[in-house]
């Protein structure tokens, strides 16, 4: 009987476990995760912090899921090393667990930059785990204001969550724009306007010079412009770094993340990696190897890895870099190379940006082929454009109706009546005969939802 071991109890790990169980009903499955909780929906943490949803809406699996599926779980346990020569995983308490096939699905952890005074942990927060979310909710009770510094979408999520919790929030951007990985300046300006409209103070090209601490408590920060800003909560967020430290002595090939091929296989023939920790080769001629934080990507890669661990021959053939989210009520979808930095790319963006409309759409071409796209505020054509990019279509071959709908402001709102899945944030098709209270399942990530009046509007 095969022994499958999965390190990481996030979406990539859980999807792999479910897939293995489907293909190998009798195989032994062991899951190890350092968070002491059953699987939960990480992208819903900001809404939980903001008090928009209760804790019970976070759970993706009940505690008895593991027992019911004959999975041995070690939750709250940390893996400190693996030994491919003896097929062993080593836990912090030195327990060794044997495997025939192993999945590394350890995601990433938020790197925090240090500033003078920031070694005092008291008021400094981050939002990655359910424990982080609970910690923030507790601190918000006695706080009036917060400062957040950073530019990518984890920082944006934290900023929005703190603001929605009722705090006065100042957001420091070290550069001139938000989320530079996917956004050009015009796209970023649309979102910045929305954040300002909500009452969030934005300071661009400003960093922290010093954290102002009194009686071991954070009282504020001093900016690089020598301004003192009061705050009791401080969010410092840098990029998510793949959690690969425990692989140092293992011989598993890593770069930024664990290097895998499109079967999610590492350089060992029985060790796989999937999700935020995995690094696929560059796709779409982008020169940029992809390892970005994306729920749906982790979900699909877990499925491919699980299938292969159970003896199949599955391949991950999606675009590695699709990102869908919602910030301040604005839908954002980025596909492929959405913000190229060198001059080999051509940008098509029709009538956008427009000073009065907070919608923005663009296509990125390389040698006439569409290699990337960005949608802000209206994501109506995102699914169609994903197919265009995946099929390596030339710009001249794209359906003219699709281009008109994307770029012609007169048809900008077209017929989109979609609803975005609260977990994977991709369009959720609502059946035409759906009624309030019916149950529907997101075809992309599998979450089950009750149909509400809002969805039917
Ligand atoms: C606040 C927030 C909002 C987000 N919003 C969106 C969104 O709107 N859209 C979107 O597409 N994505 C979003 N994401 C990103 C998305 O959640 C991730 O891409 C996804 O969770 C990655 O899944 P994973 O299984 O690869 O890793 P993870 O979900 O990070 O799970 C990995 C697990 O492995 C554990 N682990 C790590 N090291 C060890 C070890 N040595 N031993 C044992 N266990 C270990 C970790 O603690 C963790 O529990 C959001 C993330 C956050 C934090």
From TrEMBL:
InterPro entries the UniProt entry points to: FAD-bd_OxRdtase (IPR050260), FAD/NAD-bd_sf (IPR036188), FAD/NAD-binding_dom (IPR023753), FAD/NAD-linked_Rdtase_dimer_sf (IPR016156), Rubredoxin_C (IPR041575)
Q: Keyword annotations for this protein?
A: FAD, Flavoprotein
| Domain FAD/NAD(P)-binding as annotated: residue spans | 4-285
Essential cofactor(s): FAD
One Gene Ontology term of the molecular function aspect: oxidoreductase activity
Is this entry keyworded Cytoplasm?
A: no
Outline the extent of the NADH-rubredoxin oxidoreductase C-terminal domain: 327-392
Q: Does the keyword Flavoprotein apply?
A: yes
Pfam families hit by this protein: Pyr_redox_2 (PF07992), Rubredoxin_C (PF18267)
Task: Give the UniProt family note.
Answer: Belongs to the FAD-dependent oxidoreductase family.
User: Per its record, how is this protein called by name?
Assistant: FAD-dependent pyridine nucleotide-disulfide oxidoreductase
């Amino acid at each position: 009987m095969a022994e499958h071991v999965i390190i990481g109890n996030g979406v990539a790990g859980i999807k792999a476990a479910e897939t293995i169980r489907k293909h190998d009903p009798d195989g032994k499955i062991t899951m190890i995760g350092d968070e002491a909780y059953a699987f939960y929906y990480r992208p819903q943490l900001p809404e939980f912090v903001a008090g928009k949803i209760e804790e019970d809406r976070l759970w993706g699996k009940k505690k008895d899921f593991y027992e019911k599926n004959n999975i041995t779980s070690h939750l709250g346990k940390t893996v400190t090393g693996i030994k491919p020569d003896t097929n062993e995983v080593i836990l912090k308490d030195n327990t060794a667990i044997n495997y025939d096939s192993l999945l590394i699905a350890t995601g990433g952890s938020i790197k925090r930059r240090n500033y003078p005074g920031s070694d005092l942990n008291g008021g400094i927060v981050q939002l990655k785990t359910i424990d982080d979310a609970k910690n923030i909710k507790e601190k918000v009770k006695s706080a009036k204001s917060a400062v957040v510094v950073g530019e990518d979408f984890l920082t944006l999520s934290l900023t929005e969550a703190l603001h929605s919790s009722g705090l006065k929030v100042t957001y420091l951007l070290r550069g001139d724009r938000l989320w530079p990985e996917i956004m050009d300046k015009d796209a970023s300006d649309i979102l910045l306007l929305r954040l300002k409209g909500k009452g969030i103070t934005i300071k661009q090209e400003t960093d922290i010079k010093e954290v102002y601490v009194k009686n071991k408590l954070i009282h504020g920060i001093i900016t690089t412009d020598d301004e003192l800003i009061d705050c009791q909560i401080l969010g410092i967020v840098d990029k998510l770094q793949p959690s690969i430290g425990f692989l140092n002595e293992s011989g598993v090939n890593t770069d930024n993340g664990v290097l895998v091929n499109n079967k999610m296989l590492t350089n060992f023939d029985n060790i796989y990696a999937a999700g935020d920790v995995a690094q696929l080769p560059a796709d779409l001629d982008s020169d940029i190897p992809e390892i970005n934080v994306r729920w749906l990507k982790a979900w699909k890669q877990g499925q491919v890895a699980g299938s292969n661990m159970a003896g199949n021959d599955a391949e991950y053939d999606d675009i590695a870099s699709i990102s869908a989210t919602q910030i301040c009520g604005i839908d954002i979808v980025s596909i492929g190379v959405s913000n190229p930095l060198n001059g080999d790319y051509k940008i098509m963006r029709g009538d956008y940006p427009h000073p009065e409309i907070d919608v923005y759409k663009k296509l990125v071409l390389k040698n006439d082929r569409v290699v990337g796209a960005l949608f802000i505020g209206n994501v109506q054509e995102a699914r169609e454009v994903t197919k265009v990019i995946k099929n390596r279509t030339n710009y001249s071959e794209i359906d003219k109706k699709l281009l008109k709908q994307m770029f012609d402001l007169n048809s900008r709102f077209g017929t989109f009546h979609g609803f975005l899945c609260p977990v994977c944030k991709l369009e959720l098709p609502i059946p035409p005969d759906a009624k309030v209270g019916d149950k529907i399942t997101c075809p992309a990530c599998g979450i089950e939802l009750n149909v509400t009046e809002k969805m039917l509007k």
